Amino acid sequence: MRHLARLADYCSITNMHTKNLAIVWAPNLLRSKQIESACFSGTAAFMEVRIQSVVVEFILNHVDVLFSSKLSSVIRDGAGVSSGLASLRQEQQRSAAA
């Protein structure tokens, strides 16, 4: 994830912003057996991939916080988890509006 976040730093050259990277990499990083099975229609599969890309974009935008040793200690202590979920919801709403 850090590597993809570093690639996003060069978006002025590559035009691969975090959103573009998330769209490309989400199906591989968050592979779902449900999507691959025949029970998902095209529309449902598209919506699932869209959710995956929102999650990956959120992770890429917050990679330094999510993969820091400080966050690991906060999670072990059980504090601050709800604020992270609120941020994920805000990211989903922002992505849906775009």
Structure write-up:
This is Rho-GAP domain-containing protein. InterPro entries: PX-Rho_GAP (IPR051576), Rho_GTPase_activation_prot (IPR008936), RhoGAP_dom (IPR000198). GO terms for molecular function: GTPase activator activity. Keywords: GTPase activation. The structure is a single chain. This protein is mostly helical. The protein has one domain. It has 8 helices and no strands. Helix 3 crosses helix 5 and helix 5 crosses helix 8. It is globular and about 40 Å long. The model has no long low-confidence stretch (mean pLDDT 78).
Report, as a whole number of angstroms, the end-to-end distance.
23 Å
Tally of distinct domains = 1
What is the average per-residue confidence, as pLDDT, rounded to a whole number?
78
What does the largest sheet look like? none
Number of E strands = 0
Helix content: over 70%
Overall geometry: globular
Domain Rho-GAP: 1-67
Protein name: Rho-GAP domain-containing protein
GO molecular function, one term: GTPase activator activity
Organism: Chloebia gouldiae (Gouldian finch)
Write the layout of secondary structure elements.
Blueprint lengths: L1 H7 L2 H4 L3 H12 L3 H4 L5 H20 L1 H4 L2 H9 L3 H17 L1
Organism: Chloebia gouldiae (Gouldian finch)
Keywords: GTPase activation
Pfam families: RhoGAP
Features:
98 residues, mainly alpha, 8 helices, 79% helix, Rho-GAP domain-containing protein, GTPase activation, GTPase activator activity, PX-Rho_GAP, Rho_GTPase_activation_prot
